[in-house]
Amino acid sequence: MSQHIARKRFGQNFLQDGGVIANIVNAIDPRDGDCLIEIGPGLAALTEPLLERISHMHAVELDRDLVTRLQNQFSNTQLTIHSQDALKFDFLSVDPEKKPRKVVGNLPYNISSPLLFHLADFTPNIDVQVFMLQKEVIERMVAAPSEKAYGRLSVMLQYRYEMEHLFDVPPHAFIPAPKVTSAVVRMYPRPVSQLQATDEAHLSKLVAQAFSQRRKMLRNTLSGVVSLVQLEACDIKPTARAEELSVADFVRLSNFLVNNNE
Questions:
Q1: Fold of the CATH domain 8-194
Q2: Its Gene Ontology molecular function terms (predicted)?
Q3: What is the CATH T-level fold of the domain 200-259, as seen in this structure?
Q4: Is 13 annotated as a binding residue?
Q5: pTM above 0.85?
Q6: Tens digits of per-residue pLDDT, 193-252?
């Protein structure tokens, strides 16, 4: 097969480190009977060892040249290829009745945040996700209140998931080597019973507004949206900053506003 040149517009960096690959495969723990979906299989560095553990899986790949390579490398009985943009892909269209559903991938860094938010819409039907991402993004995902990395991404993903920062991956593990350190995260969607927001769209909008000027106090960033009386009714100090509020604080405030038709 001819050599594939990594394309910047697709954010392509191909994993080559065998130890890292083995650790990712072990983290997702594929088993026959699973509905396993890989995002961005690229040159099949993960796909091959995954298919040593499972007889069939799915792959979502946008690059048509890579789709052709994958079609030549694997049979249809091994790999079902969805030549689509993962940002628009319906993850429930894949074996709708089959469980457990697992999603894995070395995600393109240029679309990582919007892709994580897109996947959050499918959480009731996904059992576990294991992704390689830029380390800085994972630090934001798992950050606790009052930590520098804590922000909108932290709140909205922690509302949906239990997450583990598993291990870091150095640049030399890839071809071409990226300029940043990567890391691997494992994400377990929370049961629907734990998702307490009355209106998740309202919660998302409120969190985005609160972090729009993260160094300012909530009485300023939420001015016109929430009154001082309403903040205090939810046991939230008007002088607090968004980064000081827990996920539960944001949910409580959002529910109060929705339930009082604000």
A1: Rossmann fold (3.40.50)
A2: 16S rRNA (adenine(1518)-N(6)/adenine(1519)-N(6))-dimethyltransferase activity; RNA binding
A3: Helicase, Ruva Protein; domain 3 (1.10.8)
A4: yes
A5: yes
A6: 899 999 999 999 999 999 999 889 999 999 989 999 999 999 999 999 999 999 999 999
19 is in an annotated binding site: no
Residue 262 pLDDT class (50, 70, 90 cuts):
low
164 is in an annotated binding site: no
85 appears as a binding residue in the annotation: yes
* The Cα angle at residue 35 between residues 157 and 114, in degrees rounded to 5: 30
* Number of C-beta neighbours around residue 8 at 10 A: 10
| 65 among annotated binding-site residues | no
Q: What tens digit of pLDDT does each residue of 152-190 get?
A: 999 999 999 999 999 999 888 887 777 889 999 999 999
Which residue pairs, CB below 8 angstroms and at least 24 apart, start in 240-246? 241/214, 241/215, 241/216, 241/217, 242/151, 242/207, 242/210, 242/211, 242/214, 242/218, 243/145, 243/146, 243/147, 243/150, 243/151, 243/211, 243/214, 244/145, 244/146, 245/145, 245/155, 245/210, 245/218, 246/145
For the chain, the domains span: 8-194, 200-259
